[in-house]
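Deliverable D2.4 — example input (structure tokens):
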């Protein structure tokens, strides 16, 4: 199918995935002379818990020309510099996976290698003071950062390492994206689809309850976990990853918020999984993720409600899931995007990233006239590599725990691991360095922050430099930490003040 032959694209589903896709595909639609139709079906429920993102969300927002002001004013958005993990290594301990780079190299010497070679000289080795985004988050200081000069002459510009993302109300974001899509020229139809017809090309038509037939050249399945097109009709192969990530249930609830929102997401480990806390401007989104083999629903709900701050605004909602992904989300003339393509627990806020990234990749296929086998193969290969990278990154949070008191965590330590992850951990253990695959969303610094936070190294002696050389490098680390703290303290805006400024803008 060439772009000249393509006249219509139907996006099935009107949640976050549907409207991200609708807005992305409909931008400058007249250039390619195809129509985007979003079919919002009442029988497809919205999961409604995807309220946190990673910095790559700005790829979508910049492409669609959506500003921070738009999100703060219309989606109750707040900013985030990272994710704080509590009780993950051991009960009572915490660390932050902060966005952006850590530290500063000393000549040709990598910052982390310097830190690792001196870690044994510190009572509690910690990367947090060397991560500008983490220091800013804990200081409640918000800045979009500043660009370092092209030639730094070896000088350190800590604020150039700041990187941030967003918390938001997912239903309000979907509404904003719908407005953007309709403005771009997309069409919105609310229909109850009762039948899907197929032919040798894949999907041939959607039949609505009122008898109307909806046909297109390309279909995008954004129907949620049910997967109305690719899973249910085309019988796409699903790779079940529960052996690697065995949590299978979540409960979500919203609570009141009567204080300034934090600049980070909280992830708090418990006996059989973890719970999240996401603070918006007007409320807090809370949830608990657990393995039903180790915890029942009533216990999980009680743990969630006892741990949540504020008074409940909604009834706790149970969500059952199977961790995994479609091995080929683009089959014939139907492309699965969002939960219909797979579910990886929201531990590192990757769900919306995958929606945005693959809506854009589909758009690239259209722009490159690759609505064909070539484009399909590229799309599916990229999906497989990227989701495997996310899977492995999520797994290290579980595998590298030091908890001894709960059977769930003991099982995770000795659980199966894919060869790709085993190789990365072996590399780090032997060399003190890690090289994530090119397709990985998360770079070396992210992996190191999590692994050090999880106490991957219980003994740093193997990498320690001689005692007579250590003082020079320890002083260097102290200088880096001081520079970060000093520059962060100069940031004039608190989180609350920047939100107020954006709300007041016309």
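Example output (designed residues):
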């Amino acid at each position: 199918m060439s772009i000249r032959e393509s006249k219509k694209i139907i996006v099935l589903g009107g949640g976050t995935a549907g409207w991200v896709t609708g807005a992305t595909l409909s931008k400058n639609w007249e250039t390619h002379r195809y129509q985007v139709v979003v079919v919002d079906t009442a029988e497809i429920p919205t999961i409604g818990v995807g309220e946190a993102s990673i910095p790559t969300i700005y790829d979508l927002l910049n492409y669609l020309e959506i500003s921070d002001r738009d999100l703060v004013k219309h989606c109750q958005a707040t900013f985030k510099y990272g994710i704080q993990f509590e009780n993950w290594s051991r009960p009572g301990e915490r660390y932050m996976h902060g966005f952006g780079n850590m530290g500063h190299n000393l000549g040709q010497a990598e910052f982390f290698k310097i830190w690792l070679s001196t870690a044994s000289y510190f009572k509690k080795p910690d990367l947090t003071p060397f991560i500008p985004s983490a220091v800013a988050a804990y200081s409640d200081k918000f800045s979009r950062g500043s660009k370092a000069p092209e030639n730094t002459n070896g000088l350190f510009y800590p604020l150039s390492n700041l990187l941030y993302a967003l918390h938001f109300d997912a239903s309000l974001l979907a509404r904003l994206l719908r407005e953007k899509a309709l403005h771009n020229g997309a069409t919105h139809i609310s229909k109850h689809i009762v039948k899907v017809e197929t032919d040798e090309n894949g999907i041939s038509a959607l039949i609505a309850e009122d008898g109307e037939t909806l046909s297109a050249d390309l279909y995008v399945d954004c129907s949620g976990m049910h997967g109305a097109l690719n899973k249910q009709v085309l019988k796409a192969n699903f790779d079940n990853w529960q052996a690697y990530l065995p949590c299978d249930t979540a409960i979500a609830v919203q609570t009141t918020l009567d204080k300034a929102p934090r600049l980070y997401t909280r992830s708090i480990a418990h006996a059989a999984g973890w719970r999240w806390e996401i603070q918006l401007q007007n409320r807090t989104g809370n949830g608990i993720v657990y393995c039903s083999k180790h915890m029942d629903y009533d216990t999980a709900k009680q743990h969630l409600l006892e741990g949540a701050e504020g008074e409940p605004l909604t009834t706790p909602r149970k969500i059952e899931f199977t961790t995994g992904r479609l091995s080929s989300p683009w089959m014939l003339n139907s492309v699965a995007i969002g939960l219909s393509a797979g579910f990886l627990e929201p531990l590192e806020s990757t769900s919306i990233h995958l929606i945005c990234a693959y809506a854009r990749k589909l758009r690239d296929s259209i722009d490159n006239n690759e609505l064909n086998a070539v484009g399909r193969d590229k799309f599916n290969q990229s999906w497989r590599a990227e989701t495997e990278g996310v899977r492995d990154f999520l797994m290290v949070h579980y595998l590298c725990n030091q908890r001894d008191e709960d059977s769930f965590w003991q099982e995770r330590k000795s659980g199966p691991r894919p060869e790709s992850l085993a190789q990365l951990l072996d590399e780090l253990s032997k060399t003190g360095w890690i090289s994530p695959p090119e397709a990985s969303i998360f770079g070396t610094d992210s992996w190191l922050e999590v692994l050090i936070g999880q106490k991957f190294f219980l003994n740093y002696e193997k990498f320690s430099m001689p005692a007579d050389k250590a003082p020079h490098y320890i002083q260097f680390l102290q200088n880096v930490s001081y520079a970060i703290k000093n520059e962060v303290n100069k940031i004039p805006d608190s989180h609350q003040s920047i939100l107020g400024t954006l709300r007041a803008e016309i």
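DSSP finds 14 helices and 21 strands in the chain.
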